[in-house]
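Q: How would the C-alpha cells look for this protein?
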Amino acid sequence: MTDSSEDKTTAAGQPAAEGTAPAEASGAATAKAAAPEAEVPEATPAEAAAPEADATEAEASETDVTPVEAAPEPEAEAEPKTEAVPKPVAEPVAASGGTPSAFLEVRDLKVHFPTDDGLVKSVDGLTFRLEKGKTLGIVGESGSGKSVTSLAIMGLHRASRQQRSKVRMSGEIWLDGKELVSAEPDEVRRLRGRQMAMIFQDPLSALHPFYTVGSQIVEAYRVHHDVDKKTARKRAVEMLDRVGIPQPDKRVDDHPHQFSGGMRQRAMIAMALVNNPELLIADEPTTALDVTVQAQILDLIRDLQKEFGSAVIIITHDLGVVAELADDLLVMYGGRCVERGPSDKVFATPQHPYTWGLLGSMPRIDRDQTDRLIPVKGSPPSLINVPSGCAFNPRCPYADVPKDNVTRTVRPELQQVDGRHYSACHLPQEERQRIWTEEIAPKL
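A: Here is the predicted structure in C-alpha cell form.
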C-alpha cells in the first residue's frame, strides 16, 4: 500500500511542489473519507422511523382501502425504470482522477499537432486498458492513429523541449499507478526501456548504422543498471542467443547492415527485452518480413511474453497477426476507437461497418475463395478535416439507414454490445446483427 501511494504522488505532483501536493491530496482524501461517516448518524432517524411506518401499514391493513394503496405498486414501477435505461457508454476505466485498476490505463487520450494547414487530430479521445500477461491488438489503416498512440505511451512526443512545443497532448496514461502525461520528461525517461519498451516498425532505421548491434544493446542495459561493460556485453550475448541469433558471441560485434531483415527484427526484440520490461509495444513488427520469418517472430514474442509475464500491445493492419496473438482487439479509425472487445467476439460478431470492411478485404485460407475480395471503398479521412458525425460515414454503405441524417451530424460514442464488447455506430444493434448475419458473413 505504501509503494502504490508513493507512485501516485510522484506521478501526479511536479518536483518543485512535492511538499504541497501530497498535503493537498491527503486533505482531499481525508474529506472524502469523512463524508460517509457524516452520513451514518443521519441514517438513525430513518431507522427510528421504520417502526412508525410499520405501525402505519398495520393500521392501514385493517381498512378495506389498504390493498388499493399498497406499497408494492411503487416497487413494481421502479423495476421497469431500471430495465428501460439504455446500455451504458463504454467507460471501462475509472473516471478522470480515479484510482487505476489495471496495469495500463489510457483515459481520453488526445494527441494533436498544430501545422500550417490546420490542427492534425491524430488521436482524439482514446480509452482502453491492459492487464499484465495479456495482449492487446490495435488495428486500422495507415493514418488511423495507431503509432501515435504507442509513441504517446512511451513519452516520445514530449522527449525534448522542441518536441513539446509541437504537440498538444491531454488525457491520462496510467502505467502501474504512475500518470505519464503530466509527469516530467526525466521521470518518463527513467521508465522508458526499463518498465516499458518498444519494438519499432523499421529496425534498419531504428538501429544506429555506425555502432555495432552489441554496443547498442549494451548501452540500453547500462543506462538502467550499474554494471561494467563486460557484464553488460555478457547480457547482450545472452539476449541475442535468446531471440535466436546464430553465433551470438560473434554476431554481437556486427553492424546492423550485416544482419538480414529478420535478424535485425530479432536484435530489436533483444534490445527491447534486455531490461525485462513489464510493458512491450510492438509497432508492426512483421511488416517487412516474409511469411516464414513473420511466424517465427510472432512465436518468439509469444514465448517471451510467457517467460517475462509482460503486457504486450501489437500494432498492425494485418488482422491475421492479432487473430493469432491478441486477447483483446481495438479497431481505430480517424484517431478514435470504433470497436473494442475480446478478439474472439470481435471476429465472430463484429459490430461496426469498418470492421466488416477490414475482414472482407482479407483472404481466407480455411475455405475456397470463389469471389473477389471486398475492398473498403474510398480513402481514410484527413485528420485535419475529419468528417462531421461518424468519421466513417463517407465510406459506409449503411450511412443512410439511420433516420434524421444522424450519421453525418452526431458523432457516435462507444456503447456496450455484450460484456466487454463495445462499438461506436448509429445503426441499431438488431439491424447490425441482421446485416452481419444475412449480408456480410456469407461473403467472407
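Confidence is low (pLDDT under 50) at residues 1-95.

The first strand starts at residue 104 and ends at 114.

Upvote if useful.
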